[in-house]
Amino acid sequence: MDDFLAEIDDPFHRERTEEIFTWIEQKYPNLKAEIKWNQQMFTDHGTFIIGFSVSKKHLAVAPESITITHVEDDIVKAGYDYTKELIRIPWNNKPVEYSLLEKMIEFNIWDKANCSTFWRK
């Protein structure tokens, strides 16, 4: 995780990203942090749970499209821009919607409990 964070030039972006990753590590100590495809990912028993990438305007959250569909109303309520594959958390001073992250992570842990592949089939 330190290698991923070190690549973030903007101190505010790095701090916010680290805050999110620390929250995940503390709330979900069973998840494994790893970097794949230039993204910070968290996995459970070898299956993808959630991934993050950084751009100039936002932190992109990628939980898989089925999960975005599952929490779409919550994404809209949070005011985040999103696509079929990712959610954009803007680099602003508004608090991160941790309840949304929690809902996505818990859905994926539950839904993929018996998944034996990295991605859903």
Describe the structure.
By secondary structure, the protein is of the alpha+beta class. It has one domain (2-111): Aspartate Aminotransferase, domain 1. The chain is built from five helices and six strands. It has helices at residues 2-6, 11-27, 65-70, 72-78, 98-111, and strands at residues 32-36, 39-44, 47-54, 58-62, 81-82, 87-90. A six-stranded antiparallel beta sheet has the order 1-2-3-4-6-5. A hairpin with a 4-residue loop joins strand 5 and strand 6 (87-90). The longest helix has 17 residues, at 11-27. It holds the Pfam family DUF1801.
List the helices and strands and how they pair.
Layout lengths: L1 H5 L4 H17 L4 E5 L2 E6 L2 E8 L3 E5 L2 H6 L1 H7 L2 E2 L4 E4 L7 H14 L10
Pfam family, one: DUF1801
Organism: Robertmurraya siralis
Protein name: Intracellular iron chaperone frataxin
CATH topology: Aspartate Aminotransferase, domain 1
Number of domains: 1
Strand content: 15-25%
Major sheet summary line: 6 strands, antiparallel
Shape: globular
Going by helix content, strand content and strand pairing, the class is alpha+beta
H-E order: HHEEEEHHEEH
What share of residues is helical?
40-55%
Question: Summary?
Answer:
The chain has 121 residues and is of the alpha+beta class. The protein has a single domain (2-111), classed as Aspartate Aminotransferase, domain 1 (Alpha-Beta Complex).
